[in-house]
Each structure stands twice: as structure tokens, then as C-alpha cells.
What we know:
single chain, mainly alpha, 11 helices
Amino acid sequence: MGSFHCVGMCGPIAFMLPVERNNPIKKNIQIAAYHIGRLSAYSLMGAAFGLIGKNFYIFGWQQQLSITIGVLMIAITLIPHKTLNKYNLSKPMYRFVANVKSSMGAALKKKTADTFFTIGFLNGFLPCGLVYMAIFGSIVSNGIAQSAIYMALFGLGTVPLMTTAIYLGKFLNNTIKQRIRRTVPVFVIIIGVLFILRGLGLGIPYISPAPIVEMISNNIDCH
């Protein structure tokens, strides 16, 4: 699901990559460097937000946090954009995003060894609803390393289709892009519901496992 959204949103960046068209080996190395840059950015964000989640885990608030994040994901998806824009919630990010885009534009004009890694790394920090969703998931992970790996795997899932986009060009028309964008909110709501179920600890394997304290207490034999 994330791959299709990435092609629709970040596809233009992939299409503009200054890859070496006449040298397949060099082209593959450049594309790999671009993806490594994206995954590095995602992993760094995962580690940073995993540190926040670890503090919640230490204090035993992780279940409540999971429920809260699930509710927020659903609420943000259902609330009209016009209502959210009234409060200018994203205004503090405008300058940061502008700087990222400016740096990316400068990198796209180069063909140095680090160009593709830099473009991919900056690409990872551009605003994206699915990246936010993945970050929410990293917060409710159990530690910094797990959060970083979680975000890296999220990025890894987008690699096949993004690579195909680089090779084949603009193979998605506007109608298909619009349909994909309409399915993304549904996907986010489903994930939000799963976060809520996870936080409730209903004892459903994989979906809503019982709290760790409860599982330990159930396995204690008193003599």
C-alpha cells in the first residue's frame, strides 16, 4: 500500500534522479544509494521517536499511548483538511520543508558520488502521511533499535515499486493516482483500529496480545 502512495507522491523526485542512463551497473549503484539514503532517514527518525516510546514503555504507559495514537490516526483522517488548516498545525514545519526542498533541488543538479544518497536522505524527511503513520508505529515499539528497524522495514517495502518507477518512468496516469490516494485514508484507519486493539490487550494473539504483566502472573504457580 505504501509503495503505491510513494510513487504517487515521491514519484516526480524518482523520475528526476540524474541517473546514468547508458551504464546499467552505475545506474543500479546510484539507485541503491538513493534508497539507502531514504532508509537511513527513516531509521534515524525511528530511533529518535523510539527513544520517546521507550520512556513511555518504562513508565508502563505504552498501552494507553497505543490507544491514543490509534484514535489520533483515525481522527486526523476523518477531520476535513479545511478544519485542520484553520489551526495552522503544520505552519512551524514550513521553513524546515522549504530548506529540505532547497537542498534537494541543489543535489539534483549534481552527479557526485554522494548525490543520490543525499537526495534519498532528504526525500525521507519530506512530509508524508504514511511516514507519519509509520512513526506512530515506531513510538509504540519496545525500544530504540526495534523502532529504527521498524522504520527501515517500512522504507524497504517501498523499494521495489519505487525502483520500477525509476526504470519505467511515469507509468501511472492521474486517474490511477487519484484512486490510490483515496485508498490510503482507509488503510490509515485500519492501522489506527489495530493500534487501539493492541492497546486494549484483549488477549487476541498477534492482534491484541494480553499485557506482559498479566501473562507473567498467569504463568506463576503458587505452592
